[in-house]
């Protein structure tokens, strides 16, 4: 850095750069200076911690390998003491396993050396343009996931960590488990909470209208297009786009969606150029996407793109101890809608619910209680007011193995990625024999 550049350094310091190589620190400092950002630098974990306690930063960039520790230790330290600070890990030893570990711990992003200036600019822009998230979940957000069971506590903790980064998250589980509730929870706790949350049921849009619904259209592009119209991507700008039942998308639309996610840009129908969009992608399905890939009904490259991290939502039968709290929550919501005091469950009615297998999960519980409220003549719901379906079967339940995930670890198994590292094939094709095992590791940021 020359004398003029040092003299023109911004008075405010926005970024902390942590790297044990002096030339890398100077290169990053110069790049940030040209963006109009001041920065401090540290060559070790100890120096970084001291600087973090001495002043406030808007972003931290840390190398993976440090002389007295590693970047992951710094990520953990920041999440514990400065949870609102985005931190990105930069490493010359990029691997899918390391990236997933960093994102799991709460890193904002993970990039490999050498860092391209364009990638650095995008990373910094995304980090600084989003509001700092709260250090702890507000009570209202915590109540979105009702219950205190170990299964729900694990889900809540994982979702809170995922809220801090921008990696795509695939939420999987049976129908009725509350996958959209989990997606909203992640959105509301993350740095995009000030932006819109746009849910879309991919199976509810006509294939003929999908492109215009997702990307918008220009006036005169087709009969009836009297004005310009924004699409779902534009509507979710600076927020979150939740693609529910993504397995329902036809293959032709999957190609267009993949490009939009990769390029962070869309081309409205009738437009001559793409326009940038800044959204975080969350997706969900109750289907086995691995099987759909093997059958040629879901693109493998899109599967890898949306499935950077997988989050399992447990069925209600795995958290029966949450049924009393869930029932009380649902009854209170129904009472508020009717403008009356909440009805109470008798001990016998609660026992009926606790013994029911709930193949329809939380959605079935909601329907049962709404029907019971309609049948109940007093202020208390008894066992006779709860009409169970005698033909309810467990035969349609999907297991974790059906989704291709390890039930012992909610996070994607990095070994799946490594096994396919040598698979042949161009992007957009199915590598021979790769099935749904995993993609080749690639350099650069893990972009949503």
Account of the protein in words:
The chain is α/β, with parallel strands linked by helices and 448 residues long. The chain folds into three domains: 12-129, Rossmann fold; 148-314 and 410-419, 3-Layer(aba) Sandwich (Rossmann fold); 316-385, Helicase, Ruva Protein, domain 3 (Orthogonal Bundle). It is 39% helix and 14% strand. The protein has helices at 3-7, 22-34, 45-54, 71-81, 96-105, 117-129, 139-142, 150-162, 179-189, 210-215, 232-235, 251-263, 289-294, 300-306, 323-338, 347-355, 361-375, 400-403, 414-419; strands spanning 13-18, 38-42, 59-63, 65-66, 69-70, 87-91, 109-112, 169-172, 197-201, 240-244, 265-266, 275-276, 280-285, 309-312, 344-345, 380-381. The strands form five sheets. It has a five-stranded parallel beta sheet, sandwiched between helices. The protein has a five-stranded parallel beta sheet with strand order 9-10-13-8-14. Helix 3 (45-54) runs parallel beside helix 4, helix 8 (150-162) crosses helix 9 (179-189) and helix 15 packs across helix 17. The radius of gyration is 24 Å and the shape is globular. It starts with a helix and ends in a 29-residue tail after the last helix. The model is unreliable at 1-5, 132-143 and 391-448 (pLDDT under 50). This is Response regulator. Residues 14-128 form the Response regulatory domain. Keywords: ATP-binding, Nucleotide-binding, Phosphoprotein, Transcription, Transcription regulation. Residues 420-429 have a biased composition (Basic and acidic residues). The modification 4-aspartylphosphate is found at residue 63.
